[in-house]
Automatic annotation (TrEMBL):
Keywords: DNA-binding, Transcription, Transcription regulation
Entry-linked SUPFAM superfamilies: Homeodomain-like, Tetracyclin repressor-like, C-terminal domain
Domain HTH tetR-type stretches: 6-66
Protein name: AcrR family transcriptional regulator
Family matches, as Gene3D superfamilies: Tetracycline Repressor, domain 2
Cited PANTHER family: HTH-TYPE TRANSCRIPTIONAL REGULATOR YJDC, TRANSCRIPTIONAL REGULATORY PROTEIN
InterPro entries tied to this protein: Homeodomain-like_sf (IPR009057), HTH_TetR (IPR001647), Tet_transcr_reg_TetR-rel_C_sf (IPR036271)
DNA-binding region in chain numbering: 29-48
Amino acid sequence: MARTLAFDRAEVVRQARAVFWSRGYESAAIPELEAATGLSRSSIYNSFGSKRGLFDAAVDSYLDEVVRPRLAALAGGDVAAQALDEYLAATQAIFQKPESLPAANGCLLINSANAPIASDEHVSQAICAYRGELHAAFSRGLQAAVPGLAGQRLALLADAVTGLVVAAFALVRISPAEAARLVESARRLARAQA
């Protein structure tokens, strides 16, 4: 009779997420994932199908537990006028704390965009969808802050804010001060429209 696996799947995924977030998919070795999750190689493969299956679960967890809660104030129907500025200010503050996960590790998806795993169609779609989620949230934030903003001007400004935030996440591991400066530029750009 086969033994049933008894572990907290969500916690295992969080532990694996921490490894992938800090090391990247390619550098995250199975022994390191075993140590972090407390699962054996065979349990990882039985439960997730592969290292890649565990990575996919980690990406879903990252979006659901890290990204979307931070974007929640920008994702609802009634977005407050200050919601975008508050999101950007909080991001800037996080970047200035070297011990924070975003300052130490950047963004799991932006990091993956610059790694070989990004050539996988499923991963590249997840990265593009994430960028789209950011853009949509920032667009709603801009519309709430500047009610008359619409059309091409709104799209261009949302592109600029999104680009600055993505660039900040790409740089934060090597230059937190520059990442914080880019986010401040996004804040100033958004505030200049009011």
